[in-house]
Amino acid sequence: MSKEEFIKELRESLYTEVSSLEIENNVRYYSQYIDNQVKSGKTIEQVMYELGDPRLIARTIIETSKLGKGTTHSSADYSYQNDYKESVNSYSDNEDGYQHSYTFNGKLPLRYRILAIVFVILFVILLVFLGTIAIRLFITIGIPLLLVYFVYRLITNR
Asked: Which residue, among 47, 43, 50, has the nearest Cα to 34 in the 3D structure?
């Protein structure tokens, strides 16, 4: 399969399933990925074999797109972007020249909210426990010291 056939089949598989912007972003990504792999010394056949069936890739993109739009009950709303950096001097976290960014929309996933509630409850329990220790110390040490102080004041008339 050639690069053009791969891109055509990917585009056709995504058609009417995701937005045109998403189709173009994915087509651009895979086109640049194939070009980079060929530039790195792999043959087009090797790259196509490693990528696999473009219809399977399209199915994954479609399912991921549906998850991002909230059609299923996801515990987190995250977006993941692949930005290609052509400059040799630009930072990239892998050798392909792609920089990945992970953005958070401000809503904590349910598991983190539950974890926060558990920590707050444990903190309150700790405060109560330390408070009871402080009260015991006050009763056993503080009150006798106060009594001694007041008795001393009464005796010395100050």
From this structure: 47
Alpha carbon separation from 158 to 22, 103, 145, 151, 155 (Å, rounded)? 85, 69, 17, 11, 8
Which pair of structure tokens corresponds to residue 39?
């530039």
pTM over 0.85: no
Sign of the alpha-carbon torsion through 30, 35, 41, 42: positive
Q: Are 11 and 28 in contact (CB under 8 A)?
A: no
Collapsing DSSP to helix, strand or coil, 109 comes out as coil
Inter-axis angle of helices 20-39 and 44-51, nearest 10:
130
Task: Tokens 């009260």: give the residue.
Answer: 135
CA 139/CA 149 separation, integer angstroms: 15
Q: What phi and psi values does residue 8 have, to the nearest 5 degrees?
A: -60, -45
72-93: per-residue pLDDT in tens?
333 343 444 444 433 333 344 4
CA pair distance 142, 158, nearest whole angstrom: 21
